[in-house]
Amino acid sequence: MNCQKTKLIRDKFSMATLISSTSLSSLFLSALLLLLLLCLSSKPHVVEAKKTEETFPQTHTLEVASLLASDVCNRSPKVSNQDSSLQVVHNYGPCNPRNQGKGAHVPSHGKMLLQDKLRAKAIQAKAKGSKSSSPTAPVQSGTGLGIGTGMYAVTMGLGTPAQEQTLLLDATNDLSWIQCEPCSTSCHQKLPRFNPAKSSSYKNVSCSSATCKSINGLGQTSCSGTTCHYEYQLSSKSLSGVLATDTLSFTKPDTIPNFIFGCGQKNEGPFARASGVLSLSRSSLSLTSQIAGKYENRFSHCLPSSSSSVGHLTFGGKIPKTAKFTPIKNDTRSSVYPVDMTGVSVGGRLVPIDESFFEDAGCIVDPGTLISHLPPAVYSTMARAFEDLMTDYPRTDGYEDFQTCYDFTGYDSVKIPSISFHFNGGLELAVDKSGIMIALPSLKKVCLAFASNFEDGNEAIFGGSQLRTYDVIYDLAEGRIGFAPGGCS
Ligand SMILES: *[C@@H]1O[C@H](CO)[C@@H](O)[C@H](O)[C@H]1NC(C)=O
Ligand SMILES: *[C@@H]1O[C@H](CO)[C@@H](O)[C@H](O)[C@H]1NC(C)=O
Fold it and tell me: What residue range is the signal peptide (predicted)?
């Protein structure tokens, strides 16, 4: 067998081709042929290579057309069919019912990436605020609401009879909120706004209630008469409204009576013309906390591989056998999902980065952030390793913060190195090939789909692009997050 191993290393690119071939039978046949040829021509005694190095670099074959947005929604049959599942769609893609017909509003890539950066900053500020406050203090005042737009949306009904709402998935905001009538400022959205007057189950939260008091640590409350108002200021923007409850219906048989949310009347900020934000955070007022008892304190989501396919959000449900887990860090002050990232592999080989860079920064899992934001030292080492394996392709100018970019015009498919992230507990998460590069916006400029944080000490954010196609299981009862491949396509 020695002859096989050495030759395979020398012939690294041909092996990589084989590995990423999609047809199993042709892979098997060609492997047999190659083995035969190699063994016939090789010298006998050679040092045995380590198993993990055999196939370096591990690559994916990426059809370049898959990098471009499509206008047609491809509803794969492989959407979770568990009872308490909702379809997850890309907010700007053709599967979002809101975007059907004319007038779909899609912001430029530049604008989307800028918003993503602002979102990352707001999350980092929130994490920092909670890090520095004393363990018993509430989350720093004013950081609980309004962390901008997310990328993925679900449709739910609110009120009796149900009024349809498109809500952005979010794991960082402390409270869900929905644009309501009467709306005074920044009320843009495609579907009609929620009208409390047309719902027989709508109630204002009273000022003297514990719920109203609990929001005080998150934003600011004030009372007009007996009604509990919230208000949050994000630089010059402001979000305010009434704290309310109503029946939330997500799948036909499943309803949640007295769901607590912010009924927004002033909704400034980049909210992407959705009806509002659905909070899946660890805050006591998130949807997740409100329904913890009903679904074994567990939910999962799968973000689709492209803006034209469909994923799911599932409450409760079975844990796939292939799931691998990492603990959620025991930080009771923060409502986000912190985990321990410990390393990055490119092409199947761990890149040399001191673990302290990961430890000092920390890491938050957030499906609402478009791309992952990494500590500068981690990002640059990873990008170099990636570039070293991409020398076959023409480099091109960067795009704002993205400097590792290639011109893929004229290619049908390209071979890109695999990228995987290591987490505490021995979890290695191989990023789906759809989450490694991003076209900005054409094939002339396709860049490594990661961003660098401004400072080493800022939290890494493991974002939506790199979570694609995995079932991401938030098993809060066990204090862990799991990942199972092939959750959606
Ligand atoms: C809720 O509070 C708002 C603002 O104080 C008020 O205008 C509205 O009538 C109240 N609605 C209900 C159902 O009590
Ligand atoms: C998390 O921290 C709390 C409070 O400090 C402690 O009571 C609990 O046992 C810890 N849980 C784990 C899993 O370490």
Answer: 1-49
